[in-house]
Amino acid sequence: MNPMKHEIQSLRLSVILVRILFVFILVLCCCVPVMVHWYDTEYAAGVGLLSGSVYWPLTICLYLAAVCGEVCLWNLGKLLGNLTKDIVFVGENCQYLRVISWCCLLVTIPFGVFGFWRFLSFIVAAAAAFFGIILRVLKNVFDKAVELQEESDYTI
Fold it and tell me: 121, 134, 131, 123: which is closest to 62 by C-alpha?
């Protein structure tokens, strides 16, 4: 298979998956109250420092995570759109990566707070922080590449 054709197909698949996930999160937001009620009644004896109902803390946590996720997916879609057009080393893509990384880092807050009700939530918060840090590093690499690209464009 032609490597270029494979790359184009991979980008198209990524765009489709991002769009599907964007819609899926919106649909799940409608189901949050029912899912959280089920979880709250089914797993009432959770492991955490705080006891009692987790309905409101978990509902707030999931909605805040959904907002961060949707902003993240929106920016990822824009980034993929630029990559599809062969627009790679530009400041705009660095901005998309910056927003995505901040979304990952921000989602650590609600999951970190919810960790006091359910300790396993700390793992989700740590994973989100880890992804946010990785994306910050990638953003910095892209920033440097953009800088080198601009220097190269002005040379000659």
Answer: 121
Burial of 68 (0-12, 13-18, 19+ CB in 10 A): buried
Burial class (CB in 10 A: 0-12, 13-18, 19+), 103: buried
Question: Which H or E run contains 63?
Answer: helix 55-84
Q: Long-range contacts for 56-61 (Cβ within 8 Å, ≥24 apart)?
A: 57/113, 57/114, 57/117, 58/114, 58/117, 59/32, 59/33, 60/110, 61/110, 61/111, 61/113, 61/114, 61/121
Q: What is the pTM of this model?
A: 0.91
Q: Hey, what are 102's tokens?
A: 């901040």
Q: Mean pLDDT, consecutive 10-residue segments, the chain of 156 residues?
A: 84 97 98 96 84 94 98 98 95 97 98 96 98 98 93 79
The residues, ordered by sequence, that sit 6+ positions from 6 with a Cβ below 8 Å of its Cβ are none
Q: What are phi and psi of 12, to 5 degrees?
A: -60, -45
